[in-house]
Structures are given as structure tokens and as C-alpha cells.
């Protein structure tokens, strides 16, 4: 059981490091003349992710998961999502943030996974919120927080896209790019 707590703790540590990076990036964007939009909903995202980990740790502690061979599949997908997460974040560089930060007149980045999806990081976060609990048979956490995540992202994506449409070349850059599922054209 200690391995479960270590693994979850490493994911939490990763999120803390990402928040530190996001805060550094936010300061950089503000120095360039950028600003934050959608600030009102951000506290709900923080609460969702905080309570996600609290719920996960609570459910795991109460249910004491057993390890069966079928958990290898969600575990491998989760690890692949971590690789894609690093790819997405590093593709945006200093423009990546946990907040919605816009820099008027900036060119939207369309490299890395952003060549294929408008919101690859949101897809990755959704996969993580679903699969991390499934790995440890915390099915209530997987279900409840997946639903809550979809609800908050439906609000966040509208705000983010509207801000980007108003201040950047978002529309021309992502006109032929899907939000969540890559398009394959022959």
C-alpha cells in the first residue's frame, strides 16, 4: 500500500511543480503586456484538483485496492499521458499556464500536439482524472471528478477561446484543427 501512496504523492508533486512553472510564466506574460481572463472560475479548477486528490487518497485508503493484471492497461495509458503532458507544456513554453493568460497580438503556438488538437492538455488532464483512480480501483473518484472536470472545462474552454479569438490569430491558426479528437485527412 505504501507504493500506492508514493505514486500518488509523485503525481501531486508534479502538479505542485507545474503550478510553480505556471506562476513564473504568468509573471513573464504580464511583463510582456499580457493579462489574465476568466479569473472567476479558476478557483473552482483549483478546488476540483485539490478535492480530486483528497477523494482519491480517501477512497484508496478505505477500499485498499488489489492489483490485478488488467490495471496494467490504464497504468500504461496514464504514463503515456504524462509523456504527452510534457510534450504539450514544453510546446507552449512560457505561454503555458494553469490560468487563462493572453498576450494581445501574440501568434498562437501550433506546434507539438497543438498541430493536431486545439486543447491537447485538456484531453490529457481528462485522461488522468479518469485513469489515475481506475488504476487503484477508486471508481467513485474517477466517475465524479470526470463529470466535474467536463463541466468546468466546458466553461473554461469557452472563455479561453473567446479571449484568444479577440486578441490573437487563434481563428486562422486553428480553423482546421479539432478541439479534442485529431482529424485524419487523406
Report Rg. Answer: 17 Å
Q: Can you name the CATH architecture?
A: Up-down Bundle
Estimate the global geometry from the Cα principal axes: elongated
Lateral strand order in the biggest sheet: 1-2
CATH top level class name:
Mainly Alpha
Question: What oligomeric state is this?
Answer: single chain
Give the distance, in angstroms, between the N- and C-terminal Cα atoms: 49 Å
The DSSP helix count reads: 6
Subcellular location: Membrane
Protein name: Isoprenylcysteine carboxyl methyltransferase
InterPro entries: ICMT_MeTrfase (IPR007269), Metal_cation-efflux_comp (IPR052527)
Pfam families: ICMT (PF04140)
Report on this structure.
By secondary structure, the chain is mostly helical. The protein has one domain (2-174): Four Helix Bundle (Hemerythrin (Met), subunit A), CATH 1.20.120.1630. The chain has six helices and two strands. It has helices at residues 2-31, 39-63, 72-92, 120-135, 139-167, 170-174, and strands spanning 35-37, 100-102. A two-stranded antiparallel sheet has the order 1-2. Helix 4 (120-135) packs antiparallel against helix 5. The model has no long low-confidence stretch (mean pLDDT 91).
